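Reading a protein record of the kind used here takes little practice once its layout is understood. An example of such a record is reproduced below.
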Amino acid sequence: MDNAARLSFVLITTSSGKATVDFKNDESIRALTHALLKQDFNLDINLAHDRLTPIVPGRLEYLTWIINLALSTSPSTPKETPLKGIDIGTGSTAIYPLLASRLHLHSPHPRIKELQMVATEIDERSYELALENVEQNGEEGSVRVVKVPANGDPFAKLFVDDVLHGLADGETFDFTMCNPPFYSSESEMGDSATSKSMDPFAVCTGSENELITPGGEIEFVGRMVSESVGLGERIRWFSTLFGKLSSVSTTIDLLKSHGIHNYALSDLRSGQTKRWLLAWSLQDYRGPNDLIRNTNTRELAKLLPGSTGVTFFISHGPPYPPSLNTPTTTVFTSTPSSRIDRATRIILSLFVSFGSSVRYERLDDGPDCRDRKLGVGWEVRARENCWSRGARRRKKLEGDGDGMEVDKVEEREGDWEDILVVVVLLSLSSGDETGDEDGRDEEGIGGIKLQLDWRKGRSRDDFTGLAGFVGRKLREGLQLPEVA
């Protein structure tokens, strides 16, 4: 039966005469899910009546969010190296791994094309159904379904014996996913349903082990957090979905109690029911703001991770009086290209002054350099803080007096270890970002935009200190008339 025929049996007509799916009918939900998976991902999945039927848009949103986070924080590896992920509690459909195996149909990224997934499951029937779904879609080469014991911590069940579960000894992964049971008991599940002011938008199907776990989602995820402390070198990003808002704040507090401050927070916006995503890492790769601070939930505003981006706007127009709201200064160059050229010379001289403590490389291609009119960018790597006031004071005492002389110590390649990696981007501002209409020139260009994005490092103070120092030096340099 094709998708159109399958859906025709479950369509209903609204009061306005439009055809729609009855979301409160489990057969309708299964028909719609099957049709979406077949149409968009060429997946033919067996949706058992006694197991959860996944809502495809929400599952896809979670998957793409964690994959984008993993891609944006990848260490320097060959571009063709496939991403590797783990799905904790994959369920009967193995929906996350199977969607991951077909993402290459919609993304040209080379690391997605051969993406590998390990899927764990404790329930025998769900395990057998997941295996069946993987095999009938021909994805045995990209998805490994692993049966793990029902008792024990989520990751210990998988990593207790790498060889037993088909893993390479010490195998590492880019990310994990988990959609844990929300409730601690049937009574809590019933209380949750009766406490809602409106009837649920869609029917919920599923077995007890898919909906209920001792202690609910908060205890389950708490065990994941505790386990992650010992697995931080093998897994770059751990993540989970939450059904309860209160669980998010409690888990973030738990992360911080373990000294984990590198985390990402996002709303799950698909569908009528609000859900939340949380990821955390014990490594020092930092995600971009649009992924790690991706929530509009008011109650979570104070829990957002610190920003990993700093932007300065420097106007070419008339100087403004000093103000916290107008951090702009005059640029005495006339044409857009000459403004960028002058700013580039100032930035490069600053990099050179750091000596052998800093390496920098021009970014000529890639996502960091696209969509920037007359722009330029660099990846800057530091092995020590040489820009703080204390560091410059020490240099001044040791050197020739300016506090920024070239390091005299001969650099040995094997001694290098990054304490900070930052992408520095220079581009022309339209003036719209600051409302600086009077500062635009005849081409509508508003001046210089300096952006610094934190990519790696454990010290926030190092990043904010470097950003402030570079921004201040560029502003000061552009205030001065250029000498011919």
About this structure: The chain has 15 helices and 15 strands. Residues 318-333, 368-372, 400-412 have pLDDT under 50 and may be disordered. The first strand starts at residue 11 and ends at 13.
